[in-house]
Amino acid sequence: MTTHVLGDTGVLTGRSLRHILRSPDTIITTAVTPIALMLLFVYVLGGAITTGSDESYVNYMLPGILLITIASGIAYTSFRLFLDLQGGIFERFQSMPIARSSVLWAHVFTSLVANVVSVAIVTGVALIMGFRTGASVAAWLAVAAILILFTLALTWVAVIAGLTAKTIDGASAFSYPLIFLPFISSAFVPTSSMPGPVAWFAENQPVTSIVNTIRALFAEEPVGVEIWVALAWLVAVFVAAYAVAIAMYRRKIS
Amino acid sequence: MTADKALQPSIRVRGIRKSFQNLDVLRGVDFDVRAGSIFALLGSNGAGKTTLVRILSTLLKADAGTATVNGFDVAARPGDVRESISLTGQFAAVDDVLTGRENLLLVARLRHLKNPDEVADGLLACFSLSEAGNRKAATYSGGMRRRLDIAMSLIGNPPIVFLDEPTTGLDPAARVEVWQTVRQLASGGTTVLLTTQYLDEAEHLADRIAILHKGTIIQNGTLAELKQLLPPATVELVEKEPSLEDVFLALVADGGETDTAGDDRSDSAVRVRKESR
Ligand SMILES: Nc1ncnc2c1ncn2[C@@H]1O[C@H](COP(=O)(O)OP(=O)(O)OP(=O)(O)O)[C@@H](O)[C@H]1O
Ligand SMILES: [Mg+2]
């Protein structure tokens, strides 16, 4: 049975990717809001924001925008998982001789693919809007790795939401605070411009270290200790969410 | 087919109990299903038919009792049980976004068949879905969905098939088609356990019929055996053999919380029984 884990996960991932291809609006919707935010901040608000660096504002804000893209993209992951649980198809899979964890992993891989596409679209628009970087291939790969880790960590949070949701709205509502988190971070304005307690929160929440790391990688500056803080956060969230999700799933299917 | 296989029941249920919170749904269910036979489980709404099917198909754990399917204990060897069965649940389990053909291909691939395309096309033809095969399942009528659902369950020829109310919501013609499929399966050696609320369905299809009521099997026998439970009609009444419906209603009439059987009808069935004593 377990020898088929990879094959079964592949078949099931193909299935949910097909769902996305049949309703590409989920990817478009995921990309539209961040793009709108980007237009708003760059062409309307950006002029009034002093970032304290000589980077263009689009360069400054892109890392945060990419995180927002992913945070809204994973809402669809719990949405899709919830729909599968609601319909009988999930029980059909559970009654078949397939590796049981494949059903979850298929959703996780699908989430990864969908978010990579959304992030690519948003990055493309940012390039059109004047985003420029001289980052090396290694720096680009580091950025990609951080974004993938961020996606995986949040995807497992989304799996928890999908497994526990009672209603379809509940399945995606958990993502709103996550989408909001970058606004109280260094993503759009320097944290030093914020009042004391807010600045303290902003400086100590995960988004700031992730944003600063990506920003430094794009700007060809040293990443310092921030990258380790960022990685610690990402790995911690990933491990915790994964453990909780798997435990819940086990309880659900037994 | 072989003698020893025929001797061993395909499904053996002993003392299965299940309750949800403080609702005792199954209170010690016992029965056997002979290999290659059609076994009908009759019961009113909420009798616990689906709960029992879910336990036998490893989706739910019983609180007590044992059940073996194809010789494998459902609790100890769920993987082997899943290799031996297929489940057509009470509500069609098809992927609406995929086409009918893609649904079949999906299951064929998950069952690791060598020739998924042939299998899918064969089943589409067999269930009169060839023309609709490339349409999304979301556009199917209720009957078409059910046919696709059953077709998906037959992929891989599992020796035991569970059908939970397979014909609910089908028109008479579609029902007859499903009945034919079930008979074909059984004549090919497949063991079929089906649940139904349609007494005539059990009457037409099943080799044995068990009645699940208030958490236990209150009767289990062939149609002829069940009919003998009621004495033949008395001379004062119009000569009429009791239908299975009479038997059923008389058996479950004792003040159960069944919500389908109209009280007046069950009362009259009891009266028939008492009068003829
Ligand atoms: N997961 C559950 N949690 C709580 N109660 C449940 C659960 N599943 C079933 N029940 C209850 O158990 C009883 C039996 O349900 P079940 O679905 O097995 O009946 P059924 O015989 O299949 O009925 P129907 O003919 O309506 O399909 C019902 O009262 C139902 O409400
Ligand atoms: Mg039921």
From TrEMBL, chain A:
<feature type="transmembrane region" description="Helical">
    <location>
        <begin position="104"/>
        <end position="131"/>
    </location>
</feature>
<keyword id="KW-0472">Membrane</keyword>
<dbReference type="Pfam" id="PF01061">
    <property type="entry name" value="ABC2_membrane"/>
</dbReference>
<dbReference type="GO" id="GO:0043190">
    <property type="term" value="C:ATP-binding cassette (ABC) transporter complex"/>
</dbReference>
<feature type="transmembrane region" description="Helical">
    <location>
        <begin position="61"/>
        <end position="83"/>
    </location>
</feature>
<keyword id="KW-0046">Antibiotic resistance</keyword>
<dbReference type="InterPro" id="IPR000412">
    <property type="entry name" value="ABC_2_transport"/>
</dbReference>
<keyword id="KW-1003">Cell membrane</keyword>
<feature type="transmembrane region" description="Helical">
    <location>
        <begin position="27"/>
        <end position="49"/>
    </location>
</feature>
<keyword id="KW-1133">Transmembrane helix</keyword>
<keyword id="KW-0812">Transmembrane</keyword>
<dbReference type="InterPro" id="IPR051784">
    <property type="entry name" value="Nod_factor_ABC_transporter"/>
</dbReference>
<keyword id="KW-0813">Transport</keyword>
<feature type="domain" description="ABC transmembrane type-2">
    <location>
        <begin position="25"/>
        <end position="252"/>
    </location>
</feature>
<dbReference type="InterPro" id="IPR013525">
    <property type="entry name" value="ABC2_TM"/>
</dbReference>
<protein>
    <recommendedName>
        <fullName>Transport permease protein</fullName>
    </recommendedName>
</protein>
<dbReference type="GO" id="GO:0046677">
    <property type="term" value="P:response to antibiotic"/>
</dbReference>
<dbReference type="GO" id="GO:0140359">
    <property type="term" value="F:ABC-type transporter activity"/>
</dbReference>
<feature type="transmembrane region" description="Helical">
    <location>
        <begin position="227"/>
        <end position="249"/>
    </location>
</feature>
<feature type="transmembrane region" description="Helical">
    <location>
        <begin position="173"/>
        <end position="191"/>
    </location>
</feature>
<comment type="similarity">
    <text>Belongs to the ABC-2 integral membrane protein family.</text>
</comment>
<feature type="transmembrane region" description="Helical">
    <location>
        <begin position="137"/>
        <end position="161"/>
    </location>
</feature>
Automatic annotation (TrEMBL), chain B:
<feature type="compositionally biased region" description="Basic and acidic residues">
    <location>
        <begin position="262"/>
        <end position="277"/>
    </location>
</feature>
<dbReference type="InterPro" id="IPR027417">
    <property type="entry name" value="P-loop_NTPase"/>
</dbReference>
<dbReference type="InterPro" id="IPR017871">
    <property type="entry name" value="ABC_transporter-like_CS"/>
</dbReference>
<comment type="similarity">
    <text>Belongs to the ABC transporter superfamily.</text>
</comment>
<dbReference type="GO" id="GO:0046677">
    <property type="term" value="P:response to antibiotic"/>
</dbReference>
<dbReference type="GO" id="GO:0005886">
    <property type="term" value="C:plasma membrane"/>
</dbReference>
<dbReference type="Pfam" id="PF00005">
    <property type="entry name" value="ABC_tran"/>
</dbReference>
<protein>
    <submittedName>
        <fullName>ATP-binding cassette domain-containing protein</fullName>
    </submittedName>
</protein>
<keyword id="KW-0067">ATP-binding</keyword>
<dbReference type="GO" id="GO:0016887">
    <property type="term" value="F:ATP hydrolysis activity"/>
</dbReference>
<dbReference type="InterPro" id="IPR003439">
    <property type="entry name" value="ABC_transporter-like_ATP-bd"/>
</dbReference>
<dbReference type="InterPro" id="IPR003593">
    <property type="entry name" value="AAA+_ATPase"/>
</dbReference>
<feature type="region of interest" description="Disordered">
    <location>
        <begin position="256"/>
        <end position="277"/>
    </location>
</feature>
<dbReference type="GO" id="GO:0005524">
    <property type="term" value="F:ATP binding"/>
</dbReference>
<feature type="domain" description="ABC transporter">
    <location>
        <begin position="11"/>
        <end position="239"/>
    </location>
</feature>
<keyword id="KW-0813">Transport</keyword>
<keyword id="KW-0547">Nucleotide-binding</keyword>
<keyword id="KW-0046">Antibiotic resistance</keyword>
<dbReference type="InterPro" id="IPR050763">
    <property type="entry name" value="ABC_transporter_ATP-binding"/>
</dbReference>
